[in-house]
Design goal:
alpha/beta, Spore Coat Polysaccharide Biosynthesis Protein SpsA, Chain A, UDP N-Acetylglucosamine Acyltransferase, domain 1, 2 domains
Length: 461
C-alpha cells in the first residue's frame, strides 16, 4: 500500500470525566509526554496522506496543545453520540477520498507503529471492508467482546449489552480498525442507537458488513498492554510505568547499568551510552544524550542536555539545556541552566549555578558561585562565593575571564567586564573595570582593627 492511500483518524472528543481535570484527557502526560503524542508518532511513522482528529470537549485547549503539529485537520463532534457518530463527522473531509482509513484513539498511547503496519498489511492483503485489532485478556470487564462464528468474527458486543455467556469471552475489541473507504460512510449512516447507552456504536459495523456479505478480518495482538486505554489517574500512572520499564530494559540490554529501575525515570527520546551507571532516583528527560562510561548519581534531573563520555554528575543536580565535554564533573547540588557549555575536564562543585555561559577546559568552580552570561577561559580558578553581576537593571551584560585567571573568594564581577589572561582578583574584591593581563585587582582598603569594640558595645569598661 502506498502512503497516498492512507488516512488516519484519531478520536479525541471525550470528556474524560474520571480524570477529574480541567485539561483535555489526551494532553495528560505518560512518562513525560502527552499521551496523544505517542499516538501521533505511531501514526506519523506510517506516512499517511492525512491525519484528522475528532474533537469536542475543550477542543480549543486541545488544539493549542497540538500547535506543534500544523498538518493536523480537525472535525468537531457535538453532541457526542458514540464512536460511530464520531467517525461519521469526518465525512466532510474524507468521504471523497479513496484508500484505507485507520482509526485510532487518542487515549491509547502504547500502540507501536509496527503493530499498526501489520494491521494495515493484513487489511490490504485480505481485501476486507474492515479489519479489527483484538487481544485476549484475563479480565475483559468494560471491553467489547469479539463474538466469532466458525472461527470468523461475526459481531462485537459491548459490555453493557452482552449476555452472561458473552461476558465470559476473553477476546476483546481494541478500538483500532482499518476500513476501506468505499463502503464506510454509507454504512455509518445506516447505524442505529438501539443499545443500552442510546449511542451509535462503531462496533455495529461488523455485524452490518457481515449481513452485506462483506469481509471482516481480525489481527490478534501478542501484547495486550499495547491497547491499554487511559480513563483515570491510576491508569495514567500504570501506562507511565510500562513506558519507563520498557525504556529501562532497552537501555540495560544495550549495556547501561540502572541500579534501581523502579525509581529511575528515563524518557523515550533519551539516549545513554554503554557502561554508564545510573543511580536510584535519576530523571533523564526530553532529548537528553548521555555518553559512554558516565556516572549519574541519585536525585539528579537532566533535561534536553548532551553529556559526552566519562562525565560524572554527583547527587542532586539539575541540568537543563546544557552541553558537557568528556571528563566533566558536576555537583553535588549544582544547577546548570540553558545555553551552558562545559568543556573538557571542567569541575563545577557544590551549590554552583551557571547560566548561558561557556567554561573552558580545566577550569574549576568548586563552591557557592553564580556564573551567568560569562565566557570563561581555560584553567581558570573561580573562588567560593564568586558572582558575575550580569544584570544592570535593564539588560544582561557579559563577563569575560581569560585563560589562567584566578578569581579570589567572595568576589563580585560587575558586567560588562573582562579579566585578562593570568590576572588575579583578590578575595572580597568588587571588580567594576577591566583587569589587564597579569595584574592583581583589589578593591578593599587596609584592614583596621578597633580594639575593645565588643565590650564597649555592651556598655562594659
Amino acid at each position: 500500500m502506498s502512503s497516498s492511500d492512507l488516512h488516519i483518524v484519531i478520536l479525541a472528543a471525550g470528556k474524560g470525566t474520571r480524570m477529574k481535570s480541567v485539561r483535555p484527557k489526551v494532553l495528560h502526560a505518560v512518562a513525560g509526554r502527552p499521551m496523544i503524542e505517542y499516538v501521533l508518532r505511531a501514526a506519523a511513522g506510517l506516512k499517511p496522506t492525512t491525519t484528522t482528529l475528532v474533537v469536542g470537549h475543550m477542543k480549543e485547549l486541545l488544539k493549542q496543545g497540538l500547535a506543534a503539529h500544523p498538518v493536523l485537520s480537525y472535525v468537531t463532534q457535538e453532541p457526542q453520540l458514540g464512536t460511530g457518530h464520531a467517525l461519521l463527522q469526518t465525512a466532510s473531509v474524507l468521504e471523497s477520498r479513496t484508500g484505507i482509513l485507520l482509526l485510532l484513539s487518542g487515549d491509547v498511547p502504547l500502540l507501536r507503529g509496527h503493530t499498526l503496519a501489520g494491521l494495515l498489511e493484513k487489511h490490504e492483503g485480505s481485501g476486507a471492508a474492515a479489519t479489527v485489532l483484538t487481544a485476549f485478556v484475563e479480565q475483559p470487564y468494560g471491553y467489547g467482546r469479539i463474538v466469532r462464528l466458525r472461527g470468523k468474527i461475526s459481531r462485537i458486543v459491548e459490555e453493557r449489552d452482552a449476555s452472561p455467556a458473552q461476558r465470559k469471552i476473553k477476546e476483546i475489541n481494541s478500538g483500532v480498525f482499518a476500513f476501506s473507504l468505499g463502503p464506510l460512510y454509507d454504512a455509518l449512516r445506516g447505524l442505529a442507537a438501539a443499545n443500552a447507552q442510546g449511542e451509535y456504536y462503531l462496533t455495529d459495523l461488523v455485524a452490518a458488513y457481515r449481513r452485506q456479505k462483506r469481509a471482516v478480518e481480525t489481527v490478534v495482538l501478542d501484547d495486550p498492554d499495547e491497547i491499554r486505554g487511559i480513563n483515570s489517574r491510576s491508569e495514567l500512572a500504570e501506562a507511565s510505568r510500562i513506558v519507563r520499564q520498557k525504556k529501562n530494559e532497552e537501555l540495560m540490554a544495550a549495556g547501561v547499568t540502572i541500579e534501581d529501575p523502579a525509581t529511575t525515570y528515563i524518557g523515550d527520546d533519551v539516549a545513554v551510552g554503554a557502561d554508564t551507571v545510573i543511580h536510584p532516583g535519576v530523571h533523564l528527560e526530553g532529548r537528553t544524550e548521555i555518553g559512554a562510561a558516565c556516572e549519574i548519581h541519585s536525585g539528579t534531573r537532566i533535561i534536553n542536555s548532551v553529556l559526552a563520555d566519562r562525565v560524572t554528575i554527583q547527587n542532586s543536580c539539575v541540568i537543563n539545556g546544557a552541553r558537557m565535554a568528556p571528563g566533566v564533573t558536576v555537583g553535588p547540588f549544582a544547577h546548570i541552566r540553558p545555553e551552558t557549555e562545559l568543556r573538557e575536564n571542567v569541575h563545577i562543585g557544590n551549590f554552583v549555578e551557571l547560566k548561558k555561559s561557556v567554561v573552558g577546559a580545566g577550569t574549576k568552580a568548586g563552591h557557592l558561585s553564580y556564573l551567568g552570561d560569562a565566557t570563561i577561559g581555560e584553567n581558570v580558578n573561580i573562588g567560593a562565593g564568586t558572582i558575575t553581576c550580569n544584570y544592570d537593571g535593564e539588560k544582561k551584560q557579559q563577563t569575560v575571564i581569560q585563560d589562567g585567571a584566578f578569581i579570589g573568594s567572595d568576589s563580585q564581577l560587575v558586567a560588562p567586564v573582562t579579566i585578562g589572561r593570568r590576572a588575579y582578583v583578590g578575595s572580597g574584591t568588587t571588580v567594576r573595570e577591566d583587569v589587564p593581563a597579569g595584574s592583581l585587582a583589589v578593591s578593599g582598603g587596609k584592614q583596621r582593627n578597633i580594639e575593645g569594640w565588643k565590650d564597649k558595645k555592651r556598655g562594659k569598661t
